[in-house]
Amino acid sequence: MEPWVLVALAAAAVQTARFALQKTLKGAGLSAAGATFSRFLYAAPLALVVSAVALWVTDAALPPLTPRFWVFAIIGGLGQIVATMATVQLFSERNFAVGIAFTKTEPLLVALFSFVLLGERISSAGFAAILVGAAGVVLLSWRTGGGRLALFNRATGLGLLAGALFGLAAIGYRGATLELALDDAFLRAVLTLAAVTTFQTAAMALYLRMAAPGEMTRVVAHWRVTGLVGLTGMLGSLGWFTAFALQNAAYVRALGQIELVFSLLVSWFIFNDRSTRRELAGMALLLASIVALVLVT
């Protein structure tokens, strides 16, 4: 098995574990913002240490962090913050696997936004994949009570918001890494990760200080779990960046959809959730459409 495959599978598994831990924190009394803050609070120092070690091992100098770099990094960082908050809140609305499935609409939304806003062409195969994905979202959005279609319920809104903003974050992070004057892709990735997570920690701390006094104290009080959230968050991000450095991003993103399978296993065996046949069909359609889209574009 090729190294990038192992790295991508590990990243997907670690990311699933991180979301599961954040769902646990939400159930333990932390707000969605507090559970999100835990992802960055402990990840930032870890990312800084990894960056320092990487610079030392490669004997490279820290490149200039230009204003353009920070624009991309901040856009990506803010997008990820709001997307993560929406995902954690979504876990209160729907079961774990369905919540993760909604966040996986990101490639579909990015392709659709590129077509509508930028006029970028979509191939016939790509358009067909988007239609299949839309059918999957419709099945996931069908309200369980009353038998009526509810595309614009709260859960659907949170899920699509998360997917769209995770897409925006990915674009921001790619833009930031390209602004660093380094040939080593891994080094660009870890430096961007360190800069972004440090910004996110500061931004979230300021927000919680003003909007939710005492929430940071509660995050620290749950340090056994929040520390694991930070560790898995940093390892997951590092894994994705490494996989992207080793292989075409389309193949990595396609393989990364296995996170849906991991989330189903966690949902069934840890949270004792049961998805309906309709939800499973929706997830299957969504998974097929995303894999098809990233492979044909």
Automatic annotation (TrEMBL):
GO cellular component labels: membrane
Pfam families: EamA (PF00892)
Keyword Transmembrane helix attributed: yes
Keywords assigned by UniProt, alphabetized: Membrane, Transmembrane, Transmembrane helix
Domain EamA residues, every copy: 4-141
Transmembrane regions listed in the UniProt entry: 40-57, 69-91, 111-139, 151-173, 185-208, 220-244, 250-271, 280-296
Protein's name according to its UniProt entry: EamA family transporter
Species the sequence originates in: Maritimibacter harenae
